[in-house]
Write a structure and sequence with these properties.
The protein is an alpha/beta fold. α11 (228-236) links the parallel β4 and β5. The protein is built from 17 helices and 13 strands. Strands 3-10-9-8-7-4-5-6 form an 8-stranded mixed β-sheet, with helices on both faces. It is globular, with a radius of gyration of 29 Å. In the C-terminal section; belongs to the class-I pyridoxal-phosphate-dependent aminotransferase family. This is PLP-dependent aminotransferase family protein. Pfam families: Aminotran_1_2 (PF00155), GntR (PF00392). Keywords: Aminotransferase, DNA-binding, Pyridoxal phosphate, Transcription, Transcription regulation, Transferase.
Length: 497
């Protein structure tokens, strides 16, 4: 760290072209100390080392250090070196050294592009990603970190060079092969490893497929309500979005211009939780074949179904289906892993692989290899089974709280026994955004349902995530939320306590 001081000083000396070298160096060091670049109480490099790094004589540095000592910027400790003062004298803080180092310039206005302004105008990503009741947040404390670290340590002892350079092959082969086997068994996905591309989450996957397969102005269908993150990416890439309503059977196709893409969450619709019926699945596949469209299947939360049979993927329903299947480990493991994947038809595998390498310069092959081994050894399925049981218990506990203290009418009729959140149904006309804001002020994090609609709707509700909340935390937070609902004038069922 100390040797970086010289790099900083060499850069700053360029702003002082006049004066003796000794005076210029003194001014730069004064400014660095006042600004905190050289931390208070820190040790300066020995004069001999500083002179060598700066390429100047040691006498020049000695004179500068002596001046700094005399002015109170630093202190000399016999046998211990030169140390920056913990507290600078007032006269030092009034120094004009920092002003001398500022190049004359006129501040540029922060002018955004139309695309940038549009993106920020629709930004809804929350800074709150943990606690009651953050939707979609898994309990990351339950992940077997020690086991995963052991797998990583073993594999990383002597990594080959191909795992330390950019990836142009669509991701680590070990992970792609493990995923192909897992998806074939668990989700009825029909694909081999060459059809799988590893991405940094679903957002990158959406960006990739829309960049390569759509042109600006192309029409795409999206569920209404739907995931705002996908919607913002589609806007950013210049696509025309048509919001298609969702009923108890999933997305409702409407007549009109054929779409280039259809974005759906068929196994567990986000955020309402309904399942896309078999009839609708076949209708979508027929539409896509007829118009040479692509169905983008986001298999959101498919692993966490707590009762009944799991629904197979839309991709595996028909041979050579016009479906691009997307998945992620953000919910099953932890979000900061930033590993997702897409399964693409064979004719798209090579173009998308080349495009991904061109756009994103893939990497993280060491952790991908460890994840592939984690899956291959069966730990991934063991973890999912354990978390499915835990999340099912937490969901049941939250449902009982709602029924007991608010009433059964507050449980949305479209909630299904799956996922990491449920929708708390609210009366039409209430302000779910204001209620969510009041809850946040009291430490409870919920999302208003109305923000998931592209167009104004009468539906109102709150998304309550239960996965990362134990029963004690859930009960305490629910009491706060109930108080917010009552304060907003929401009438509780007469049968509730």
């Amino acid at each position: 760290m100390q040797l970086l001081y010289a790099d900083h000083l060499l850069a700053r000396l360029q702003f002082l072209p006049s004066g003796s070298l000794q005076q210029r160096l003194l001014t730069c060091m004064q400014a660095a100390i006042i600004e905190g670049v050289f931390p208070r109480g820190g040790r300066l490099p020995p004069t001999r080392d500083m002179a060598r790094e700066l390429g100047v004589s040691r006498n020049t540095v000695l004179h500068v250090y002596e001046s700094l000592i005399a002015q109170g910027y630093v202190t000399a400790r016999t046998g211990s070196g030169t140390w920056i003062a913990e507290t600078l004298p007032e006269i030092c803080l009034q120094s004009h050294a920092t002003d001398l180092l500022q190049p004359a310039s006129t501040p540029l206005p922060a002018t955004l592009s139309k695309r940038g302004a549009m993106l920020l105008g629709h930004a809804t990503a929350s800074p709150y990603q943990w606690g009651a009741f953050v939707p979609g947040a898994p309990d990351v404390t339950e992940f077997p970190h020690k086991l995963f670290s052991q797998i990583q340590a073993k594999l990383n002892r002597d990594p080959d060079v191909y795992r330390l350079i950019y990836s142009s092959g669509g991701g680590c082969p070990d992970l792609r092969h493990a995923l192909a086997e897992y998806l074939r068994v668990a989700r009825s996905v029909k694909a081999d490893a060459d059809q799988i591309l590893i991405t940094e989450g679903v957002h990158q996957a959406v960006d990739l497929v829309t960049c390569v397969l759509c042109d600006p102005g192309d029409l795409v269908w999206m569920e209404e309500p739907g995931y705002w993150g996908t919607r913002n990416l589609l806007r950013k890439n210049g696509l025309k979005i048509r919001a298609m309503p969702v009923d108890n059977e999933g997305i409702v196709p409407k007549p009109g211009l054929p779409p280039r893409m259809v974005f759906v969450t068929p196994s567990h619709q986000y955020p309402l939780g309904v399942h896309l019926s078999l009839a609708r699945r076949k209708a979508l596949l027929a539409l896509a074949r007829r118009h040479q469209s692509w169905i983008i299947e986001d298999d959101y939360d498919s692993e966490f179904r707590f009762s009944g049979q799991p629904y197979p993927s839309l991709q595996g329903l028909e041979a050579d289906a016009p479906v691009i299947y997307m998945g992620t480990f953000s919910k099953t493991l932890y979000p900061a892993l930033r590993i997702g994947y897409i399964v693409v038809p064979k004719m798209l595998a090579e173009p998308l692989r080349i495009a991904a390498a061109e756009l994103y310069r893939g990497g993280h092959l060491l952790i991908q290899r460890a994840l592939g081994e984690f899956i291959r050894q069966g730990h991934y399925m063991d973890h999912i089974r354990r978390m499915r049981l835990l999340y099912g218990q937490r969901r049941q506990f939250l449902c009982k709280l709602i029924e007991r203290y608010l009433g059964p009418s507050f449980l949305s009729p479209v909630n299904h026994d799956a996922g990491l959140h449920l929708v708390l149904h609210l009366p039409s006309g209430c302000d779910d955004v204001a209620i969510a804001a009041q809850a946040l002020k009291r430490g409870v994090k919920v999302r208003p349902l109305s923000q998931y609609y592209m167009h104004p709707q009468s539906s109102r509700g709150l998304l309550l995530g239960y996965a990362c909340v134990n029963e004690r935390q859930c009960q305490d937070a629910f009491g706060v939320l109930k108080g917010c609902l009552i304060a907003a004038g929401i009438q509780i069922d007469a049968s509730a306590k």
